[in-house]
Amino acid sequence: MVRDTKLYDTLGVKESSSELEIKKAYRKLAIKYHPDKNPNAGDKFKEISHAYAILSDPEKREKYDAAGVDDAAFHFGYEEVHVDVGNKRRRKKERGDDIVHELSVTLEDLYMGATKQINLNRSVLCVGCAPTESLKTATCKHCHGTGYLTYNSRGYNTVRQVRSVCKKCNGSGDYRNNGCKVCKGKGIVNERKVLEVHVEKGAKNGQKLLFGQESDQEPGVIPGDVIFILKLESHDRFEVRGKNLYTKIHITLQEALCGFDKILFKHMDGRGIRVKHTAGSVIQPGSFKTIMNEGMPTYRRTEDKGNMYIQFLVDFPADMWTSAGNIDAIRGLLPGPSEEVTQEKDMVVDDCSLLDVNFEALRSQEDKSRQVHRTDMNNYEDIERVSKPAAAAVGCPQQ
Hints:
Elements: H1 6-11, H2 19-33, H3 42-55, H4 58-67, E1 99-105, H5 107-112, E2 114-125, E3 138-139, E4 148-155, E5 158-165, E6 174-175, E7 188-199, E8 208-211, E9 226-232, E10 239-241, E11 244-252, H6 253-258, E12 260-266, E13 272-277, E14 288-291, E15 297-298, E16 301-305, E17 308-315, H7 324-333, H8 359-387
Parallel strand pairs: 1-9, 11-17
Antiparallel strand pairs: 2-7, 3-6, 4-5, 8-9, 10-11, 12-13, 14-17, 15-16
Helix pairs in contact: 2-3
């Protein structure tokens, strides 16, 4: 009996070729004769696909070697298993996706450092089947690793190609025979893990803290990372700008003029910061002073600190706070009045009074007035456009 080697000849391989050698030969020929690249090689491409569909399946290959291609077992209509190899085999996912979380931190956390316990829900390899061979994947023989099948749908005088996801591998291109009862054949189970996130002194808002390969696990895939992005909460007393800290301190008019010696504020580590300001060195309202090396520590160089900048807000006394006699005494102690505007000849001078004003309410009222004005102007422009007379039509002169 003469052995049928037509399928081997179609792929250009020997009967003793391994599965890998057959696959390489098929890939090379399929790319060469695919209709997208070679429109006139449709029949040749079908022969190649048909040959590979049999020789890549150990059972079908064994039957073919024993009985040849004319055996009834192979009359399955090779057009129906025509594989869409024009698209190269779906690239294996080598690395899993990262899990990214925002982690809220206080300014105290960044100043002194902190450790936070974070609960993480993730997928891990099933312990019931991870040590076994059941997690080893193989190329899906139905779609040959592409994840898709292309069928030729015949209509009246037409042949249309329809592509669908391979149901054997659910589009993954791999096949896993896993009967594990723990994971129901998925190869993975859900796990809750607690991660200890160490926020070092001097860490920055927006800084990323990475836990390598702690993301979801998949069979045959390197896990991604878990990444925490620090998000700084607003602080009621301090503002950070780079390495420096800013704060606002209220002092009385007496302190602004006569100095003070007191604990000015409590720092984030609990220390009281005492400041002695010399009498006679006037602090102007809204002015800034600095205390060196009381700002934020530098990340991983905590001895190197920024500065603390203090804006002083001077609280003036309330109306009618003292007697007229005291006012005269104070007037005598303080510098004289500012220079008056020179009254020119024939200048009309009006006597006016200063009144208190709610500046925020005034600002809101002005904003509303501007909005009404813009609306009125838009309406006016519309009227101008509508009322503009149309150009008079020019007729042809009468002959």
